[in-house]
């Protein structure tokens, strides 16, 4: 099944507003998905006998930079029976403040492996996943301040009263 | 009503609600059951992994892994260093199979630059040769330390003795024992030293009978089988849903190996089988199956090594004018794109996601690692439900993760 077939399949099932755009510049084309509908899309792609995207290879939290003012998530799905790969992208504009993290639906109900990946994206990029069963920091300590993989992150001068050189 | 978290003394908001819930769970469990800490300095956790166990007597009710003790900000480093400068950092992800890591990174960058078809055959074969040697070394550690987890000391010493030969050879080629920085974008750091192929063949001949001995000592050992068969059964659908890959997924009976699926590098020209778990001693997907897949993979890797040596000593023989750095690109500036490169590391699907957004820059905008150990470890809370504490040790060992890759 080609990229266009998958696109057609999704628009036929969910309507035109589910796909907000596409990127074909690189070697691997990507579909831009409406963030609110990512769970349905993933569930459909996983269960549809024509696609069977049963394996979530990678989930990446993305900060597109201060000027762009967007944060998002990139999903790399792969289909074990058909040897297919697919990239899905969702993103939202955000003002980058501490108490207003960008929020996306969690896909843990579809792929259990997303559990730790989403925790990592929350931990390092500061993306909140609604409906995640246990969204705690995973790599950094629980009392860490800030999100290190954000482009505007400044390393703290002190950690628990100890000067950081 | 707003809740207040007593330990952190902050108001519970949407963002720290999960942390509050977790602390409450541990506090409750400390009254009802017992909370046991395993690690971070526990030898059976294979590194600095801390497991919080909620136990009822000998039975583990829940496993809560805490990771991050070895976090070295790989992704942050990758955003500030050039593609070439990051290669030594990739060596430190899965430090037991460094060659496989740099191979994956280098293949991704070459694909983005569009030079992946121009790499000379001799270089590709040398890459595959050293990667497979490193895979054997990594599996030897997995087998040896698994034995020691179960209580068998001798296989550990035997495995380390044989691994030492591989370490010596790779040191001869690259100058370093574990962290090689040998595979470069577009080529190699240096050609194989004169006599390497002969020495490698000698090793394969020496090592084959040693594997028979090891099988007699551990694989068919009744005590070992009793400890591992029917323990930690991981069904195939659960393994796929949790993103397990490599020997963990193949142990559950699925013939899935990226060396065959993607046919990257020169694997399409090589003949080897993909061993899968068959449930010979118990159920498909138990600890013994995962262990056996690794043992069989060593045999397959030896087959690949021999084929590589045949080619490298015959039609791809070393010539005085051969320069492994001849194809090294002057500037590593790919076009604006993002690319997810994957390959079969020693532990499973190793992926690098590159985002490149500046045509004149040699530095990626974002580099993300998909570590196989990270995903393989995430299945542990599922496998560790309602098992005996001693069985949990067997399950941890059978997953064979490297914390350097989990924490990155």
Describe this structure in words.
The complex is a heterodimer of chains A (165) and B (408). Chain A is an alpha/beta fold. Chain A has a single domain, classed as 2-Layer Sandwich (Beta Polymerase, domain 2). Chain A contains 3 helices and 9 strands, in the order αββαββββαβββ. Chain A has helices at 3-14, 38-47, 114-125, and strands spanning 19-23, 30-33, 55-63, 70-79, 84-93, 103-105, 128-130, 158-159, 162-163. Chain A has a 5-stranded mixed sheet. A two-stranded parallel ribbon of chain A has the order 6-7. Chain A has a two-stranded antiparallel ribbon with strand order 8-9. The longest helix of chain A is centred in the first third of the chain and has 12 residues, at 3-14. Chain B has 408 residues and is of the alpha+beta class. Chain B folds into 2 domains: 4-66, no CATH class; 74-407, Cytochrome-c3 Hydrogenase, chain B, CATH 1.10.645.10. Chain B is 48% helix and 12% strand. Chain B is built from 16 helices and 11 strands. Chain B has helices at 17-32, 74-78, 83-91, 98-113, 121-150, 154-174, 196-219, 222-228, 236-241, 247-251, 258-261, 287-313, 372-377, 380-383, 389-399, 403-407; strands at 4-5, 10-11, 34-38, 50-56, 59-66, 183-184, 187-188, 337-344, 349-356, 366-370, 387-388. In chain B, the strands form 4 sheets. Chain B has a 4-stranded antiparallel sheet. Chain B has a 3-stranded antiparallel sheet with strand order 8-9-10. Chain B has a two-stranded antiparallel sheet with strand order 1-2. Chain B is globular, with a radius of gyration of 23 Å. The relative contact order of chain B is 0.17. The model of chain B has no long low-confidence stretch (mean pLDDT 88). Chains A and B meet through β3 and α3 of A and α1, α9, β8, β9 and β10 of B.
């Amino acid at each position: 099944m080609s990229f266009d077939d998958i696109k057609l399949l999704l628009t036929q099932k969910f309507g035109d507003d589910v796909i907000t755009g596409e990127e074909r510049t690189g070697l691997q084309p990507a579909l831009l998905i409406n963030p609110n509908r990512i769970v349905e899309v993933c569930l459909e792609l996983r269960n549809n006998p024509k696609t069977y995207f049963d394996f979530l290879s990678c989930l990446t939290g993305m900060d597109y930079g201060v000027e762009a003012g967007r944060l998002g998530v990139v999903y790399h799905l792969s289909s074990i029976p058909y040897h297919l790969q697919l990239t899905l992208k969702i993103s939202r504009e955000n003002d980058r403040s501490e108490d207003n993290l960008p929020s996306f639906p969690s896909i843990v109900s579809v792929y259990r492996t997303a559990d730790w990946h989403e925790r990592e994206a929350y931990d390092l990029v500061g993306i909140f996943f609604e409906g995640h069963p246990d969204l705690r920091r995973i790599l950094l300590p629980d009392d860490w301040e800030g999100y290190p993989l954000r482009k505007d992150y400044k390393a703290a001068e002190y950690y628990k009263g100890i000067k950081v050189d | 009503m707003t809740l207040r978290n007593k330990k952190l003394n902050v108001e519970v908001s949407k963002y720290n609600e999960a942390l509050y819930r977790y602390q409450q769970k541990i506090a409750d469990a400390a009254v009802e059951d017992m909370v046991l800490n395993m690690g971070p300095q526990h030898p059976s956790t294979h590194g600095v992994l801390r497991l919080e166990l909620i136990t009822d007597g000998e039975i583990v009710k829940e496993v809560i892994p805490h990771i991050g003790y070895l976090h070295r900000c790989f992704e942050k480093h990758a955003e500030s260093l050039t593609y070439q400068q990051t290669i030594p950092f990739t060596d430190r992800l899965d430090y037991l199979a460094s060659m496989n890591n740099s191979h994956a990174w280098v293949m991704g960058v070459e694909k983005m630059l569009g030079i992946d078809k121009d790499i000379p055959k001799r270089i590709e074969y040398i890459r595959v040769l050293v990667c497979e040697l490193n895979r054997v070394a990594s599996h030897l550690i997995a087998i040896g330390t698994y034995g020691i987890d179960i209580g068998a000391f001798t296989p550990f010493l035997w495995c380390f003795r044989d691994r030492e030969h591989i370490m010596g050879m790779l040191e001869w080629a690259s100058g370093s024992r574990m962290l090689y920085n040998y595979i470069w974008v577009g080529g190699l750091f240096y050609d194989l030293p004169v006599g390497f192929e002969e020495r490698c063949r000698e090793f394969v001949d020496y090592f084959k009978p040693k594997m028979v001995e090891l099988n007699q000592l551990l694989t068919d050992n009744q005590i070992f089988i009793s400890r591992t068969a029917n323990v930690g059964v991981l069904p195939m659908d659960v393994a796929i849903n949790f993103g397990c890959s490599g020997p963990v997924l193949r142990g559950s009976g699925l013939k899935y190996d990226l060396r065959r699926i993607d046919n990257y590098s020169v694997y399409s020209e090589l003949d080897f089988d993909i061993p899968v778990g068959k449930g010979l001693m118990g159920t498909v997907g138990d600890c013994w199956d995962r262990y056996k897949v690794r043992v069989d993979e060593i045999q397959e890797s030896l087959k690949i090594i021999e084929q590589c040596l045949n080619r490298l000593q015959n039609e791809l023989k070393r010539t005085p004018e051969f320069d492994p750095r001849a194809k090294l690109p002057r500037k590593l500036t790919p076009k604006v794109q993002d690319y997810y490169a994957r390959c079969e590391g020693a532990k499973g699907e190793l992926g690098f996601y590159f985002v490149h957004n500046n045509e004149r820059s040699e530095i990626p905008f974002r580099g993300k690692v998909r570590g196989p150990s990270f995903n393989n470890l995430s299945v542990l809370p599922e496998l560790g439900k309602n098992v005996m504490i001693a069985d949990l040790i067997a399950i941890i060992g059978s997953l064979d993760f490297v914390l350097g890759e989990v924490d990155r």
